Automatic annotation (TrEMBL):
Keyword Isomerase in record: yes
Lineage: Bacteria, Bacillati, Actinomycetota, Actinomycetes, Pseudonocardiales
This protein's encoding gene: fcl
Keywords, comma-separated and alphabetical: Isomerase, Multifunctional enzyme, NADP, Oxidoreductase
The protein's enzyme class: oxidoreductase
Residues of the active site: 140 (proton donor/acceptor)
Protein name as it appears in the record: GDP-L-fucose synthase
Residues in NAD-dependent epimerase/dehydratase domain copies: 10-241
Pathways per UniProt: Nucleotide-sugar biosynthesis; GDP-L-fucose biosynthesis via de novo pathway; GDP-L-fucose from GDP-alpha-D-mannose: step 2/2
EC numbers: 1.1.1.271
Residues given in the record as NADP(+) binding sites: 14-20, 109-112, 144, 167-170, 183
Superkingdom field: Bacteria
Site label Important for catalytic activity, positions: 111, 113
UniProt: substrate binding residues: 191, 206, 213, 273
């Protein structure tokens, strides 16, 4: 495939978020000189007219769709309507607007939760739609599956060279550290940090500690996005991950070590575990010549530093 023109205009939808902000950094460090962001405060992509107006005026050659309503297990479980409808609207409006603006390349970002709850591990791309979904995030997953279908439909009907990538659980600078709506990794950084700071004896971790999750640093995902725009052109989604997972209990111990918490870890089994295991088969993306570079211990340490410098400092705690 061809290298993208470094002066082509690239629109990153969702540039205020964890993923979008990392994609902007990665594009700029890869030499792209005309990167335009779209934050939710700037344009409400749930509004079809607003989305079309913004994308038409921007006239991007490339769109990366990192705009989504996202959240951890509790938020997904509690607000399925918003996770379904906001995401359906955002992605449909963005794809329609990108088509109207004659955008040649679109990268749609989904999630590893699109795969069946009991998919064979590590999860291959072709296990999509072969079994029932995990109930705590089925609404979000169905929306993301519809997004993949949107990309495939534009390819089939209009010959668009658009693609979809499915990242595993992501973390890094710019993450959401709110304890009710966040994912597990930022939640544990905050819980263990506050426990160490306050001299608490215990930290409560949700569920049984036995579910297995794979964690990818968002800067690795962003590098993969730039790579895929130049190396991948196929209707099938492509997984982006490390291919390695840990139990939530192992993650909790690693976070405790990172922040210097030496007390006890207790499990609140009234909280859901979610899917038992979710590790991606990454052989397809590796065959295109990409692999992650940031290990979990290193990524935890740098994310904790970011948390201290940005969240703790701002909160004055
Ligand atoms: P998931 O990968 O979609 O299930 O999303 P999460 O990142 O929210 O949760 C992953 C796993 O971590 C689940 O088994 C949760 O129950 C568990 N977990 C443990 N403690 C926490 C916590 O404080 N916050 C969150 N979000 N999850 C936690």
């Amino acid at each position: 495939m061809d290298e993208l023109d470094r002066s082509a205009r690239v629109l990153v939808a969702g540039s205020g978020g964890l993923v979008g902000s990392a994609v902007v950094r990665a594009l700029e460090s890869a030499g792209f000189t005309d990167v335009v962001g779209a934050r939710s405060a700037q344009v409400d992509l749930r509004d079809a007219d607003a989305a079309r107006e913004f994308v038409t005026a921007t006239a991007p050659a490339v769109v990366v769709d990192a705009a989504a309503r996202v959240g951890g297990i509790a938020a997904n479980n509690a607000r399925p309507v918003e996770f379904l409808h906001d995401n359906l609207r955002i992605q449909a409006n963005l794809l329609d607007a990108a088509h109207a603006a004659d955008t040649g390349r679109v990268l749609f970002l989904g999630s590893s939760c699109i795969y069946p709850k009991f998919a064979e591990q590590p999860i291959r791309e072709d296990s999509l739609l072969t079994g029932p979904l995990e109930a705590t995030n089925d609404a979000y997953a169905v929306a993301k599956i519809a997004g993949i279908m949107g990309v495939q439909s534009y390819r089939r009907e209009y010959g668009r060279r658009w693609i979809s990538a499915m990242p595993t659980n992501l973390y890094g600078p710019g993450d959401n550290f709110d304890l009710e709506s966040s994912h597990v990794l930022p939640a544990l950084i905050r819980k263990f940090h506050e426990a160490a700071r306050d001299g608490s004896e215990q930290v409560v971790v949700w569920g049984t500690g036995t579910p297995r999750r794979e964690f990818l640093h968002v800067d690795d995902l962003a590098a993969a996005c730039v790579h895929l725009l130049e190396a991948y052109d196929d209707p099938a989604p492509i997984n982006v991950g490390t291919g390695q997972d840990v139990t939530i209990a192992e993650l909790a111990s690693a976070v405790a070590r990172t922040v210097g918490f030496t007390g006890e870890i207790v499990y609140d089994t009234s909280r859901p575990d979610g899917t038992p295991r979710k590790v991606l088969d990454v052989s397809k993306i590796e065959a295109t010549g990409w692999k992650p570079t940031i290990g979990l211990a290193e990524g935890l340490a740098s994310t904790y530093r970011w948390y201290l410098d940005n969240i703790v400092v701002e909160a004055g705690t």
